[in-house]
Amino acid sequence: MASSGQTVLQFSSSSTSVSARVHPLVIFNICDFYVRRADQAERVIGTLLGSVLPDGTVDIRNSYAVPHNESSDQVALDIDYHHNMLLSHQKVNPKEVIVGWFSTGFGVTGGSALIHEFYAREVSNPVHLTVDTGFKNGEAAIKGFVSINLSLGDQQLAAQFQEIPLDLRMVEAERVGFDVLKPTTVDKIPNDLEGMEASMERLLALIDDVYKYVDDVVGVLLQIMTSANFYQTL
Amino acid sequence: MATQGRSFLQVAATEEAAPLLRVVQIEGLVILKIIKHCQEFSPALVTGQLLGLDVGSVLEVTNCFPFPIREEDEEIEAEGANYQLEMMRCLREVNVDNNTVGWYQSTLFGSFQTVELIETFMNYQENIRRCVCIVYDPSRSNQGVLALKALKLADSFMDLYKNNNFTGEKLREKNLSWVDIFEEIPIKVSNSALISAFMTELETDTPVKQCGYDRLQLSTNPFLERNMEFLIECMDDLSMEQQKFQFYYRNLSRQQAQQQAWLQKRRTENMSRKAAGEEPLPEEDPSNPVFKPIPEPSRLDSFLITNQISNYCNQINGNLSRQQAQQQAWLQKRRTENMSRKAAGEEPLPEEDPSNPVFKPIPEPSRLDSFLITNQISNYCNQINGVAGQSFSRLYLMKALHED
């Protein structure tokens, strides 16, 4: 291993100040596919669709699952299916292109690297999304990764999955329906007046909170002033 | 053996009555997909297919996929069908329910009540026993409420439409009015436990979101204005339809009068001929242009208010009773003639004459358009009501805040 100079393991600088924006539809899709997966499959793999915004963030808007076979050392992905679905989706929305792929399960496994390579052939710098449906650490972990090349001097060593910041965004209309999307069942969709009532209640709660907070601050300030007076009189 | 339950043949022969559809259960995933699709292409109108299961009195919608925007082209028809087959096949491979239960479409300010909707319903109904149409209104959702509706065509209306029979009598028979065309079914939303857990975790921290503030704004003018615009257009269509009917009835009554005049002339001629001992002429003459049936105006175009429907009903009533009176008069005349002929020893004439135009049923204009318009107008009125209610609430809130 003795080489002439000191070569440092270089991480290519994060020109990947890439971040990704995920729409909740993608999460819903992934969870639905996970619930419907075949019995022998441990996890679900699929393609992410979206677009790249001019400032570099990746906007992930849609997704579909791709049937695959996974064994300890091999991963087989149904490429025809992947292309067919892509064509079908593009007939509806030609602006949505492949931006990466997702898999359920915590963290990244060995097979993921192979799949990532495959997707890297389809699009430059794909984003890999992992959705932890097993709640491994007791929380819902959605992580995004891009692949960074590790190079030692001039030699390419390996590729590393580096985590990127994710942003869960909701369109205006989706936010309106958020109350409907959260619980397990909702008996009926609220109409105009009920929706008004709900937002007024929330506003009232907010006003109460702010009121209390201001009171507290004023109280503390008064206390601070009295202690200052106390010191002045000393 | 025969007493031990029914034989297989018997069971297969008895048809089970389909339970009434009480509620449509939609998954959150479907709602999100519909919102996304409709919002992306707004204000263009888009459609898509619903997939799910039909279970008893609940129709479950578990997934959906959008349709590409179709150009008006013959060959694209085949492509559309191919797309649909391809999507269904692919979705089946990932264990999505492969069963079509209806379709969804977006609308603008609630103006979705058209004949195309009815025809699409009829098309779907041929293959699927129960189907729903989900209508989403992106313009109303911007006002802060989730404007999602599930519609079904009422069964009684469907039968009528199949027979293309929209005469006043049939409608009265079935007690059908403009409210009975579409049935709105309540929607229930369900989410799998997994996604519910995810959403609860990922909920943003702020308790009130911007859209909540938007809802509390006092100004709703643009929305209200658009609504009124649509309403006024509707009323214009309404009056046009009314004029068509008036024209038709005027023509009809004029033709009736002509028929009567001709008949009278014939009768007097017959009298004179009888007196002269000649053969009486027939009392109808299909070649005479007076008896040519006037084609009624084509239908299925626009809508009507309930008041104006009852107006038409009154006119029809008058017409129908007038026709009935005519039939009675003709029958009387025939009877007296027969009496005289019997006295003279001749063969009595039959007391019916189906070829006589007096008995020819007058085809009535269909009510379908009127009903559709009325539905539309009530839709707009409900929306306006909702918005007005909101405005009042906001005013009260302002007042309350000021007083504090």
From TrEMBL, chain A:
Highest rank taxon of the organism: Eukaryota
A Pfam family: JAB
Keywords assigned: Cytoplasm, Initiation factor, Protein biosynthesis
Cross-referenced InterPro entries: eIF3f (IPR027531), EIF3F/CSN6-like_C (IPR024969), JAMM/MPN+_dom (IPR000555), MPN (IPR037518)
GO CC annotations on file: eukaryotic translation initiation factor 3 complex, eIF3m
Residue ranges annotated for the MPN domain, each copy included: 20-151
GO-annotated molecular function: metallopeptidase activity; translation initiation factor activity; translation initiation factor binding
This protein's name: Eukaryotic translation initiation factor 3 subunit F-like
Organism: Olea europaea subsp. europaea
UniProtKB/TrEMBL annotation, chain B:
Disordered: annotated segments: 260-293, 327-361
Record domain MPN: where: 24-157
Keywords, in A-Z order: Cytoplasm, Initiation factor, Protein biosynthesis
Compartments in which it is found: Cytoplasm
Record-linked PROSITE patterns: MPN
Primary localization: cytoplasm
GO CC term, one of those recorded: eukaryotic 48S preinitiation complex
Gene Ontology biological process terms in this record: formation of cytoplasmic translation initiation complex
InterPro entries the record matches: eIF3h, eIF3h_C, JAMM/MPN+_dom, JAMM_MPN+_peptidase_M67A, MPN
Chain's role: Component of the eukaryotic translation initiation factor 3 (eIF-3) complex, which is involved in protein synthesis of a specialized repertoire of mRNAs and, together with other initiation factors, stimulates binding of mRNA and methionyl-tRNAi to the 40S ribosome. The eIF-3 complex specifically targets and initiates translation of a subset of mRNAs involved in cell proliferation.
Subunit structure: Component of the eukaryotic translation initiation factor 3 (eIF-3) complex.
Protein family: Belongs to the eIF-3 subunit H family.
Stated name of the protein: Eukaryotic translation initiation factor 3 subunit H
Source organism (scientific name): Olea europaea subsp. europaea
Phylogenetic placement of the source organism: Eukaryota, Viridiplantae, Streptophyta, Embryophyta, Tracheophyta
